[in-house]
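#struct-help
A.M.: can someone run this one for me? Single chain, 635 residues.
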Amino acid sequence: MSRALRVVVCGTNFGRFYAEAVLCHPGYVLAGIVSRGSAASRDHARRLGVPHYTHVDELPDDVDVACVVVGSSISGGAGTELAMSLIGRGIHVLQEHPVHLAEMTACLKLARRHGVQYRVNTHYPHVEPVRAFSEAARRLAGRQRPLFVDAATPVHLMQPMMDILGRALGSLRPWGFADPPVVPDRLGPQPFRTVQGTLGGVPLTLRVHHQMDPADRDNHALHWHRVSIGTEGGVLTLADTHGPVLWSPRLHVGRDADHRFVLDAPDADHLDLTTTSVIGHTGTFRDVFAQLWPQAIARALDGFKDAVAEGRDALGAAQYDLAVCRIWSDLAARLGPPDVVRPPAPRPLPAGELFPDTLPNGRGPAASSGSTRPADGDTPAPYTPSAEFFDLVAAEHTATASAAAVADALSDVDPSDGPVVDIGAGTGLVTEAVARALPGVEILACEPAVAMRAVLTSRVFSDPYLRSRVTITADAAPELELPDRIGAVLLCGVLGHLDADQRRRLWERILPRLSPSGVVVVELMGVDHPLVLPETRLATARAGHHRYEWWLSGAPDGADTTRMRLHSAWRVYRHHDDRDHDERPLREVHDSYHWIPFGLSQVAAESGLHARPLSTRPGMPPLAVLTRAPATTSR
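D.P.: on it. Structure tokens below:
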């Protein structure tokens, strides 16, 4: 559609992720929050800067879409009644799963009668690692016939699992299942029940965690979606709903006349294949909530928006969704009601407790070629998805605004006091500017994001002048390795990524090492408190036949009133001098991260240093220099 859709979100539990997706994704406007009227829901709407409604009749006539994120009758909620009321008002409805087959059918018939769209969002097929798995599975099936599917799921996520399998196999038909085997009572309670059958004509083994705490389903699932699809060439595996994806080529070694392995045959190149390739990267659970889930909801919204624009017949277009629901209903009937459990809260174990020699800090995975996490597992490393575009904007900003101001602030640094430490060096633009402005100073450039560090390393290696003076590390604040003595510190676009405790620990590491005359240069964002930033195009650049646009939006984080979620969208278009810019982008890359907004006075208070703003180009992020003693002169 040519205009943005006005969307209301019904529900403020999982609905918070829907609201964030609407706020941060182009093509949508958050028009309000609908809930029963609790103080928390009203406060959530207030922080998002949108109206709060308690009844469908209160909604204005210009609402296009309602996202119903309220439990349906199968979950003991009134979500389907709410969806039908909204459809009756002529509003398109996207309803969060699970929804009973009879209710789904009734909503589709009602939507057809009112000429609107209705769809059940199973959510998890749109999560990026699941999408990558499904796309790879379809490519695999195009080359070799699937021989088996082995899948496992919690019982309350069984409907999304059927959708995942249908998308991965490219078809649901034919399907059929046997009743699960009866487990003798003498073996005691069993957390899993197994169903054998066929889906899309492929033999299926489905293991279902058939226990559930009715008051807290998600927190007591033993694991989430796991799927393996095997062919004669290997096994493709979705290790978890949130990644990674694994490819394990088939082990096959030729034999000689004496039945011994032949390891040096001319046609044995396949023995050089990696036994298992890890595709993609894994992040933290905070990354799941802050990035993967809102991005998945945005994809579901985009598909729904296309259906609205095309004016499809709701019931006719929903045959695949109805098939998913029928299969789920069949399986649920065969399995029977899940066992009700009410276990105590689990203690999630970090990987470091199991691999102490590999992960000494006990927190999480060490950095690898596919990870966007720093090695210390403490702080996420943003910017990896958009690293390829970073210099398109940052280069001009550095050249015209920050480089001169930073160089001026560091002009009195004594090389004998120790190196300049550039924390969060990014692609090295400021690092390079400082190196050229201060010929005698050594520089330690710290950058945890793998893709950003790759550009930084390339920049340093390609310039002998930099290579002799710049040392690069993958360290992340606050637990980064620092020399015993530091002449100056650069914190450009870094502090807002750290919470109060992390900033405290960072200052505790920096200040004892900073020389008496040393300085700290800080760049902030220019926002002192969380607020809604509508999506705005901040930059346009051209390279060859392509035009690049950078769009930024932001909103308060619904889970934490002290921080914002910022969202960047990079869009690549084919450049046309004689055409407007309304065409679809050739490519679109999204990046999202948290930012804690605060002002220079708070930085000064936390560090105990004296702050002096630096002069930069109007409209640019504010820069300041921090010193142990107040400035006596101004530059």
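A.M.: thanks! The radius of gyration is 28 Å.
D.P.: also worth noting: The longest strand covers residues 560-574.
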